[in-house]
Amino acid sequence: MESSAIPSKRRRSVGNAYASLSPRGEPLNHFKKMRFPYVKARFLHTINASKLKTTTLHNQSNTSQIAVEKSCLDLLQACNTFPKLAQLHTHIIKLGFQNNPLVLTKFTSASSNLDAIPYAMSLVFSVEDAHVYDAFLFSTIIRAYADSQSKYNAIFYYNLMLGYGISPNKYAFPFVLKACAGLRDLNLGKAVHGTLVKFGFNDDIFVQNTMVHMYCCCSGGVEFARKLFDEMPKSDPVTWTVMIGGYARLGQSADAVTLFRKMQIAGVCPDEVTMISILSACTDLGALELGKWIESYIEKERVLKTVELCNAIIDMFAKCGDVDKALGLFRSMSERTIVSWTSVIVGLAMHGRGLEAVSLFEEMKESRIVPEDIAFIGLLSACSHSGLVEKGKQYFSEMTKQYGIVPKIEHYGCMVDLLSRAGLVAEALQFVERMPIEPNPIIWRTLISACRVHGDLKLGESISKQLIRNEPMHESNYVLLSNIYGKMLDWEKKSKIRAAMGKKGIQKIPGSTMIEVDNEIHEFIVGDKSHDQYNEIIEMVNEMGREMKKAGYIPTTTEVLLDIDEEDKEVALSRHSEKLAIAFALLNTPPGSPIRIAKNLRVCGDCHSASKFISKIYSREIVMRDRSRFHHFRDGQCSCRDFW
Question: How many whole angstroms separate alpha carbon 305 and alpha carbon 512?
């Protein structure tokens, strides 16, 4: 810098001075020879020192920057309140880290943990340079929205990522598929499936497992899920669990059990999540023996018994007919959740043991467990099935006033059922008319059934006709009205209802009954002759009919919708699925052993009556689970005391 300030004339004179030192008139060469080694050394030393200083300063700057970045990331990791997050937001901007992808990703993750993901977006997308966005940042955003109620936003940011030309990584697709599963959108799921194949992630086991889950969650997608499952070159316990769980959630419980058996044959070890899914399938099927085997398998294989798994075992026993076993397991638990208490309360309710359910609820309160709305549904149901009208009213009031729980339609339904079963039809109607929310068809059907049972037939007819106007294609409405006319002995109107159903193509849901014998599920449906033992079963049904008539049984022919003579009606009643299942059990189980059956609909009055006679004639306990509760038939009596 100093030499450049020297005027040009002076620079030349300096050159001449150097020239005078050269005998050959080669001032520069001589200068190089005489002075350069020293000058060069000094010059290089100066340059190296300068470089070293610059590098040192640069390294110190980088080290300092990395330290500040790490400190910021640590603060975000520890952030647990929104005010702290807002402070860190300001801190990030002051430090100039709003263009740092790592910091933006961590800020998004911290916001997600505080349920403040929209707040994070205000920082992330305030950046003008889109080059700071990467697949990890978008994966974090997509994950946050996929785990929230705003699953559509997960799809939006997935599309935005593609719009920016950013290729998704393998961490993004599982959460995009999870969002599709939450939205139950099969077409959207198929589109994402196509995209991930294009990006080459279709062979990733985590992506494949999430695809199976997605298809199981979408209406009409379970066949796609099974096809994908069968085509997977290799699978892990998660793969099997996802498919089994999908079947269980969809009510395809027999398929879930079949696949579980294949899982065992394949030598794949299930975990506690698998066990929860298969127990759910057992519960749906009423397969108590299989449920018992699974419980012993859990003990034998030392499967981790989480609280959730223990709750599933309790729920299975309660809903498969052995509520005493469920209660015993509940008592042995070292740790209980609200689900544990609720499972037993609901189980006791289903078995008509209302007073025990009430006692357990009071015990739960004494244990300082705050009851939730589901617990009150179980409690009110227990009061309903046991005729505890005043207790039910007390708890309904307590739920709102003491616990501040806003009643849902299910709570109102329980109250209507409570009043209806007790014969308080007028009070039930007044209760419905005062409801602050619109009654659903289930509540109206409960009232209609009460009208039929307790003789208020004109009111039942009026409500049924209104339901048919509102839901002209729902078969239950026609069946209820037909039953009302049957009780009125108005066969002409009853046959017109039958004709109207046929004209509109409406078919009554066929009754089906399942029974488990030798670890195999057998299902019986009216009119189905496909069973291997059909002829023997019919012979046993006929024998049962003869023995019951000797004991005083009179068929309830008003249950038959068909316009046929009385003899044919009796034959039709004898072919009900409950009687077919009981006949099969009498043929294939040891004398004196209990018979356990599960019906998909409410047990009809005739089958209820017949089961009481059969239990006494053949000295068998019959445990029947219908759509709403359990019936324990012993020595000619039912646990429901004909109150169902």
Answer: 34
Backbone angles phi, psi at 551, to 5 degrees: -85, 0
Q: Rounded to 5 degrees, what angle do the CA atoms 315, 442, 484 make?
A: 120
Q: Which residue has the tokens 């638990």?
A: 333
DSSP state letter for 312? H
Expressed in percent and rounded to 5, the helix, strand and coil fractions of the chain are: 70, 5, 25
> Could you tell me which of 521, 482, 522, 488 has the C-alpha nearest to residue 502?
482
pTM confidence score: 0.76
Residue 297, CB-side half-sphere exposure with 13 Å CA sphere? 20
Whole-angstrom Cα Rg for the chain: 38
pLDDT for 503-512, tens place per residue?
888 877 788 9
> How far apart are the C-alpha atoms of 437 and 432, rounded to whole Å?
9
Cβ neighbourhood burial of 139 (10 Å; 0-12, 13-18, 19+): buried
- Mean pLDDT of all residues in 619-634: 92
- Cβ contacts of 168 within 8 Å, gap of 6 or more: 135, 138, 139, 158, 161, 162, 176, 195, 196, 199, 201
Pairing of strands 622-625, 595-599: parallel
Give 260-266's long-range contacts (Cβ < 8 A, gap of 24+).
Answer: 266/240
207-211, 480-484, 606-610 — which is least confidently predicted? 480-484
Give the whole-angstrom CA distance, residue 89 versus residue 103: 10
CA angle 332/334/336 to nearest 5° reads 95
Per-residue pLDDT tens digits for 410-439? 999 999 999 998 889 999 999 999 999 999
DSSP state of 523: E
The pLDDT-based confidence of 563 (bands split at 50, 70, 90) is low
All residues at 6 or more sequence positions from 41 whose CB lies less than 8 Å from its CB, including other chains? none
133 burial via Cβ count (<10 Å: 0-12, 13-18, 19+): buried
**Calpha distance 559→602 (Å, rounded):** 13
CA nearest 347: which of 295, 393, 312? 312
| 293, pLDDT greater than 80 | yes
| Run of H or E including 366 | helix 354-366
Q: In this structure, what token pair is assigned to residue 153?
A: 């936003």
SS3 456: coil
